[in-house]
Amino acid sequence: MENGPPWRERLFAYLLFVGATALTGVLVLYLALFAHLASAHVHPRGRGWLALFIPLLAIAGILLWRSRPRTRVPVPVKALAVFLALAVLLPGWQAYAWMRGPQMYVWTWLQPMEPVPGQPVGVLRTRASELVRARTDGLYLINSEGRSGWRLPAPEGTSVCELSRSAPEDTGIVAYRRGDGGGTGAGCGAQVAAVDLYSGRTLWSKDLAPGGGQAVAVVGGTALAAAEGALLGLDAREGRERWRIEIPQGCTVGAVDGAGDRILYVERCADGAARLTAADARTGARAWQSSLPPGLGPAGEVRIPSVQPVAVRVPDGVLLFDDSGHGRGTIPVSGPQEDLSSTDGDLLITPVQGKSPGLSAYSLTDGRRLWHTGLGGEQPRALARGKGTGEVDVLTARGGWTYLWRLDERTGRRREQPAVLRDMPLAARFKMYTDTPDGPTFVNLDPETNAPTALPTVFWMAPVLGW
């Protein structure tokens, strides 16, 4: 007399039961995730993959359930099936994470909790990756945990109007203007000071006659301050004058910057003439001077994106010069989108418009375009040096969604799928840092309010681990 199916048949039935239960668990997970992705405020990436796998899992599960021999399943086998069904949810989830690609969310932020009298001016970063945010009413340290540190109010009767672009040895140069107004322009640089960004202490300050153009910069241990009729080189830590370069009457310093032992400055004159001058950062001795295209007078836009190699941004493009001041090419970029640019070594990376909009890289030695990438037709909003070696990060926006691309700066190829940045509380003006140890950091630079709906001053992004 037979007591039931042979043990081989029972084992096969148990294996089919366990497999069908595991497939059912993954199917239920994917159905829940698909319903989540179908909701209104969730990025749809990954929905196509789920739409493909759900029917396949359903068909496979039905076939397993229907092909299983009718036999009683003991409790230990049922327990094993439930355990394995839960265990396979982890690889199922990992597969879903691959389908949707990298995504990030705002994990911490700093919100203004009291009325803010000053308007944002700019940001400096310390060697410890802490941020010093400047408003017209003073400077404020924000540490990597999103907490406020020291505060340095603007001297009485003045307001902050400009910062140096960098802060070597945690020494930032600040320009003030007389009165309570904000922004750069006439009167900026009436007082210049050096601030120790570690302690928030003013190292020195000097009253000057404003030069009317860009006010301050810093290169190595030399602070550059544009005064009326002169460009001053000051000791960055002590404030004593090291050298002085006379500026012709009727001209102002429209832009100034430096790197290594070289400084560059642009003279803009009332008669429309403009000149680029290179000088020794240690002595102020002029090395060479070159004429720039006419029309860059007091109203012309001019910047210095690179000191070594020499590059000057003018309205019609970027002019390139060799180490003797001779022109050696032009990068033909123009328009507000091309104001976003990143330089690293001998490379200029900038958005371009036209028949093939996107991001292009140009050589700063001869102006050749080295690569171009379309970024999927998305609009670039910011560029920053990436955390990885030879990486440039690009923030783009399209259709209400924001993305962070990580590109190889030498080839333009993306290093990974663009990350979706969820619920970005981003202002029209902001500063992006993506090479910080705590994840991408954003500093909003729009005027602040203390309303409940006010955007955060600073916020940090972290990878999404849940759904």
List keywords for this structure.
4 helices; four-stranded antiparallel sheet; eight-stranded mixed sheet; 467 residues; alpha+beta; single chain
Describe this protein's structure.
It is built from four helices and 32 strands. The chain has 467 residues and is an alpha+beta fold. It has an eight-stranded mixed beta sheet with strand order 26-27-28-29-1-32-31-30, with no helix packed on it. Strands 2-3-4-5 form a four-stranded antiparallel beta sheet, with no helix packed on it. Helix 1 packs antiparallel against helix 2 and helix 1 (7-37) runs parallel beside helix 4 (89-100). It is elongated and about 105 Å long.
Q: What's the quick description here?
A:
The chain has about 475 residues and is α+β, with helices and mostly antiparallel strands.
